[in-house]
Amino acid sequence: xxxxxxxxxxxxxxxxxxxxxxxxxxxxxxxxxxLELVEQMSAVDTTGVEPMAHPLELAQRLREDEVSESNQRxxxxxxxxxxxxxxxLVPKVIE
Length: 95
Fold this sequence. Notes:
Elements: H1 5-14, H2 24-42, H3 73-77, E1 83-84, E2 87-88
Antiparallel strand pairs: 1-2
Helix pairs in contact: 1-2
């Protein structure tokens, strides 16, 4: 697919990009090359190919999910204006 100068101008307007008129032919060529590459990739038969989240088969190293702090809820709620059954009570803001 080949783009002309008018199509590049429309794309630039939609993307809110300012492009100098002297640069439009280069943008048209580059965008056309990208679109041709996408067409080539779309032509490949991917039937039976499972989508991948990452090209490498790596596992994320995660730390164990361990509690590192003690429960201090009562201590933090001592300074709260209103608390009921471990919950902070706040004024109603939406009718």
